[in-house]
Amino acid sequence: MPQRDFEVRALGEIAIRCVDMEAMVAFYRDVIGLEPMTDTEGRPIVFFRIAEGFGGHTAVLALFRHDIEGAGQTRGSATPPQTGTGSSLHHIALTVPWEEQDAVMAWYDQLGRDYTVEAFDWIGWRGVFTFDPDGNTVELVAKDPTWVAP
After folding, report:
1. Does pLDDT of 74 surpass 70?
2. Residue 35's Cα: distance from chain center in Å?
3. What string of DSSP letters covers 99-112?
4. 3-class DSSP state for residue 133?
5. Is the pLDDT assigned to residue 103 strictly greater than 90?
6. Inter-CA distances, 43 with 33, 39, 46, 62, Å
7. Counting C-beta atoms within 10 Å of the first and last residue's C-beta, which end of the chain has fewer, N or C?
8. For residue 75, what pLDDT is reported?
9. What are the DSSP calls for 28-76, one per residue?
10. Which residues of 76-104 are buried (b: 16+ CB within 10 A; e: fewer)?
């Protein structure tokens, strides 16, 4: 195999084709708390800042109205995509500090939002899972700072 002269260092962007664009924008802005990088009103594409990222590229969540073409010649479709178990997207995991996960659960309780919590003991992670308005699973994950590899 030839030598590869590059190394991926971070996730730059995740883009979701949205069934209900308005509800998805409101969820990621108002429930999850991501900061919009663009105007959100009536736009076919909205970008949210996740974190600083790597090499000057901000880590981004992009929401695309399902019928809009996107970068990389990604085609839109008049038919809304399948979501939930019918989608090829399993889930999105966004990182929060361990000490803020209780605040996540309290926030979801305050909003009356269903969620589950799952521990991944083999790596010291804990995820708080909920669903966005399109039915995609969204995890807010943290690493236990006291975890030690077995």
Report:
1. no
2. 13
3. GGHHHHHHHHHHHT
4. coil
5. yes
6. 19, 7, 6, 12
7. N
8. 66
9. IIIIS-PEESS--TT-SEEEEEEEEEETTEEEEEEEEETTS-BGGGBPP
10. eeeeeeebeeebebeebebebebeebeeb
Residue linked to tokens 């090829």: 88
Residue 55: count of CB within 10 angstroms of its CB = 7
DSSP β-bridge partners for residue 18 = 65
State the CB neighbour count (10 A cutoff) for residue 127. Answer: 19
Q: How large a percentage of the chain has pLDDT more than 70?
A: 90
Max distance between CA atoms of the chain, in angstroms, equals: 54
Long-range Cβ contact pairs of 21-30 (< 8 A, separation 24 or more): 21/46, 21/63, 21/65, 23/133, 23/134, 24/63, 24/132, 24/133, 24/134, 25/63, 26/133, 27/132, 27/133, 28/61, 28/63, 28/132
Q: What tokens appear for 26 in the block?
A: 């409101």
Structure tokens at 2: 């030839």
CB 13 within 8 A of CB 59: yes
Tokens 């077995």, located at residue: 150
Q: What is the model's pLDDT at position 67?
A: 76
Per the structure block, which two tokens stand in for 144? 């236990």
